[in-house]
Design brief:
The complex is a heterodimer of chains A (255) and B (303).
Chain A (H helix, E strand, L loop, with lengths): L2 E14 L2 E7 L1 H6 L5 E4 L8 E4 L2 E3 L4 E7 L3 H7 L6 E8 L10 E6 L4 H10 L3 E7 L8 H6 L3 E6 L6 E2 L2 H11 L4 E5 L2 H13 L4 E4 L15 E6 L2 E6 L6 E3 L8
Parallel strand pairs in A: 8-9, 8-12, 9-10, 10-11, 12-13
Antiparallel strand pairs in A: 1-2, 1-7, 2-6, 3-4, 3-7, 5-6, 13-16, 14-15
Chain B lengths: L5 E3 L2 E3 L3 E3 L21 E3 L16 E4 L2 E4 L8 H12 L5 E6 L4 H10 L7 E5 L10 H4 L2 H14 L4 E4 L7 H10 L4 E4 L3 E3 L2 E2 L4 E2 L6 E4 L4 H14 L4 E3 L6 H9 L4 E4 L2 H4 L3 H15 L16
Parallel strand pairs in B: 3-16, 4-7, 7-8, 8-9, 9-10, 10-15, 15-16
Antiparallel strand pairs in B: 1-2, 5-6, 6-14, 11-14, 12-13
Helix pairs in contact in B: 2-4, 4-5, 5-6, 6-7, 7-9
Classes of the chains: A alpha/beta (255), B alpha/beta (303).
């Protein structure tokens, strides 16, 4: 179940260079939304919608929050929208994360970090959140994870904030030292592949959120294919409907 | 309220608006928004004899006012369509157009024969999909081959037969004449135009298939021109498509000679597009004193 409509932006900020943070008042969407789902946003002047992950859902306020990176002219047009402007969105879409019993580790790489906030908040102090960015200037949402009560481990490629190193090094340390019941991850393909390999090594279930060039966003056009293994056979599933969240064991990580 | 009913190739449609094959699945994804009974019909996802996995991703590239796709006819095969999708579709009170594609003449005929005696209202034979390396393009770009596959399907099928034409030809009117002479009851056009985009950073084509089909508002003027040429070349009815996004577009392509209209890529941008087009058509008719939408077909007054 999803909705399509024009909804007002009630809050907007720039959270890091080229990263925008918007909150949209859309009670009927917020009511349906689950952590890990996404929205298809219409960028003024562009033909196809842009799939953007839902970062936070506030059902009582009737809002969803989305944090996105300007990657091209379309996302640039989205970033130009201001508080009070209406945004045309289709949401909530896709399958989100599955909440489990026990302790979770959430791993976010760069702009893969926003979809982690929703699921991490459901665990609160039972979640360790490992995020990785190029440098201190690119760090987003660290305070939000802390506010949700999560343990946070910040990594940067250049050591300008947090630990100097990759999220996967930090993840392995956590997996060695604490019993972990589930790993959630979103980020670049090489990071996801490495996270999935660690999940396998330590026998911890792992859910990954993927992205792909998309058209309809609802499962009709079959454009956003991703390679998966089903019963020993390669099958193209679809990020918009079967995902964006997949069990890491079924995904063929290329790239 | 104008009369939007049209009789097309002997089949009555409650209105002339039909979501195009490959853009609407089997309708399931859009029922969350409105009942499918509002639609004139649905041209279902292209169906092949056996299950197809489709092309490697990426399959989608945005273009100025349009898009490229190279899905590669991913579908569950005709048996799955008949067992899982058709029983659901027949309850939706809309016309069902089975879009079929094969890689040989025999395969097309076998596919068509499997639909005999089913609840399918019409067959749309895809002879033009440019995505699939082994199939499609060869039939639709040659008059003799297009005629031969039409004839084989016509002989195998007890359904009204609409042949979907490729725009990637020198004279689409000649292809239309050939499929008409070989028993087609209608033609639909245009399928996508073959295109390509390259990522200049990586020097890689955006689509893994390198090339793909262009659709969306960018192709609309080409569609109007080809519908006009074909409608003037054949006596069988024409279903117009290619970039139709608004009621005004639908009316324009009908004035060019289309009796029914398919809506495709516009649905990705606005899932309500088919419904808005139907409502807008109704309003336009009322405002312009048109009592029945059929009155406008082919009424363009060429200079």
């Amino acid at each position: 179940m999803y909705k399509q409509g024009l909804y007002p932006i009630i809050k907007k900020s720039a959270s890091a260079k080229g990263i925008f943070d918007i909150t949209v008042l859309c009670p009927e969407v917020a009511e349906l939304a689950q952590a890990g789902q996404f929205a298809q946003l219409l960028a003024p002047g562009f033909f196809l919608r842009r799939p953007i992950s839902i970062c936070q859902i506030d059902k009582s306020a009737g809002t969803i929050r989305m944090v996105f990176e300007v990657r091209g002219k379309g996302t640039d047009a989205l970033a130009a929208l201001n508080v009070g402007d209406n945004i045309d969105l289709i949401a909530p879409l896709g399958h989100g994360f599955t909440k489990r019993e026990g302790r979770a580790v959430c791993v976010g790489g760069g702009i893969g970090t926003p979809p982690m906030l929703g699921i991490a908040s459901l665990y609160g102090k039972d979640a360790a959140v490992i995020t990785g960015f190029r440098s201190a200037a690119a760090v987003i949402l660290d305070e939000d994870f802390k506010a949700a009560g999560c343990e946070t481990i910040l990594c940067t490629d250049d050591g300008s904030a947090g630990i100097h190193g990759f999220v996967t090094t930090a993840l392995e340390q956590v997996l060695k030292s604490k019993k972990t019941d589930i790993i959630y991850a979103c980020g670049p393909m090489p990071m996801l592949r490495a996270v999935a390999a660690l999940a396998e090594k330590y026998s911890v279930p792992c859910e990954v959120s993927l992205e792909q060039r998309m058209a309809c966003g609802v499962g009709a056009c079959l454009g956003c294919a991703c390679r998966t293994m089903q019963d020993g056979k390669e099958v193209y599933k679809h990020v918009c409907k079967d995902g964006p969240v997949f069990d890491s064991r079924e995904v063929i990580f290329d790239g | 309220m104008a009369d939007l009913k049209v009789t097309f190739a002997g089949v009555e449609f409650k209105n002339p608006v039909i979501p195009a094959s490959g853009t609407y699945g089997y309708g399931r994804e859009y029922e969350a928004l409105y009942p499918l009974s509002k639609l004139g019909g649905i041209s279902v996802k292209g169906t092949t004899l056996r299950e197809r996995n489709g092309n490697l991703p990426p399959r989608i590239a945005e273009t100025p006012m349009g898009m490229l796709n190279s899905v590669g006819l991913q579908n569950g095969g005709v048996d799955k369509f008949l067992a899982k999708e058709l029983p659901n579709l027949v309850t939706k009170d809309t016309r069902i157009i089975a879009n079929i594609a094969g890689s040989t003449v025999e395969e097309c005929a076998e596919l068509a024969a499997k639909l005999n005696g089913t609840a399918v209202d019409m067959i749309e034979l895809n002879i033009s999909c440019p995505n699939v390396k082994q199939g499609g393009a060869a039939f639709g770009t040659d008059c003799t081959v297009a005629g031969a596959v039409t004839k084989a399907v016509r002989e195998a099928s007890d359904k009204p037969l609409m042949v979907k034409l490729s725009p990637n030809v020198t004279s689409i009117a000649d292809i239309a004449r050939s499929v008409e002479a070989n028993g087609a009851d209608a033609v639909s056009l245009i399928n996508t135009l073959l295109g390509m985009r390259i990522d200049i950073k990586t020097r890689r084509p955006v689509l893994h298939n390198n090339v793909g089909g262009l659709s969306g508002p960018a192709v609309f003027p080409v569609a109007v021109r080809m519908v006009w040429q074909v409608a003037n070349a054949v006596k069988i009815p024409v279903c117009g498509m290619g970039g139709v996004s608004t009621a005004e577009d639908a009316i324009e392509i009908m004035m060019a000679g289309a009796q029914t209209v398919q809506v495709g890529a516009a649905i990705f941008r606005d899932p309500y597009a088919p419904v808005k087009i139907i409502d807008g058509m109704n309003e336009w008719c009322d405002k312009n004193g048109v009592k029945s939408i059929s009155e406008i077909v082919g009424t363009v007054k060429p200079w």
